[in-house]
Design goal:
There is one protein chain. This protein is α+β, with helices and mostly antiparallel strands and about 220 residues long. Helix content is about 15%, strand content about 45%. The protein has three helices and 13 strands. The strands form two sheets. An eleven-stranded antiparallel beta sheet has the order 8-7-6-5-4-3-13-12-11-10-9, covered by helices on one side. A two-stranded antiparallel ribbon has the order 1-2. β10 and β11 form a beta hairpin.
Length: about 220
């Protein structure tokens, strides 16, 4: 589970973990891991709703992905960037952010920084960081999490498997909406444990194309 502040410029993020997964949870995570691990390419659009001191921010992120670590994203709606479109790209060796008021940012590829740089959650991060994000083993993002599986929950006219994760140390409660047929995560909702109606982040995938044809030039980084 990931939750981050709305600031691509500062690349700030907060992770939360808790503990305890039973065999049903592990089986679900294993099926999801298999899907994301086998994905060779994908194109998708996320709609992130992030409340803040100036009101609710709506951030649209268009992602193109080639396994294992080539990522291109166009981000619209960042408060820090005004009306500008922010672009993020990595060729797996270097990563570049452009469109910020502070100018172009370039650094060596680091999966942790990719996680922090984009206004998304596990519905997106699982593609290139599944090994850590979906793991309850030592070093995994879910190592100390407690879970509950809710089956058949209605959303957008369909039934979903919802994996609920509780992180007591961070006071964070997360609901992952998983397609019971494809095992893709299509929505992530984050709130405090003590006030689950206070949504801190709600990220939804609006469009998804697995195995999409992706232009390799999107990931090219030039001086």
């Amino acid at each position: 589970m990931r939750i981050r502040l709305l600031s691509l410029a500062t690349l700030l993020a907060l992770s939360a973990v808790s503990f305890g997964a039973d065999k049903d949870v592990e089986a679900l995570l294993a099926k999801m891991t298999g899907v994301y691990k086998s994905a060779k390419s994908a194109k998708f659009t996320t709609h992130s709703i992030i409340p803040g001191p100036l009101g609710e921010a709506e951030v649209i992120t268009e992602v193109s992905y080639l396994a294992p670590n080539k990522i291109y994203a166009k981000v619209k709606g960042f408060e820090a960037a005004g009306a500008a479109e922010v672009t993020f790209r990595t060729d797996g060796k270097k990563m570049v952010v452009e469109g910020l008021p502070t100018g172009k940012v370039e650094q060596n590829y680091d999966v942790q920084m990719v996680v922090q740089a984009l206004p998304v959650n596990l519905e997106t991060l699982n593609f290139w960081d599944w090994k850590r994000q979906l793991s309850t083993a030592e070093g995994g993002n879910m190592k100390q999490s407690t879970f509950k599986i809710v089956k058949g929950e209605k959303w957008k006219g369909s039934e979903w498997t919802v994996l609920e994760e509780t992180a007591k140390e961070q006071n964070v409660f997360v609901r992952y909406f998983i397609d019971p047929k494809t095992f893709l995560m299509m929505r992530t909702v984050v709130s405090p444990i003590d006030d689950k109606t206070n949504i801190q982040m709600d990220v939804r995938i609006d469009k998804m194309e697995l195995g999409a044809k992706v232009d390799p030039s999107l990931f090219k980084i030039t001086d």
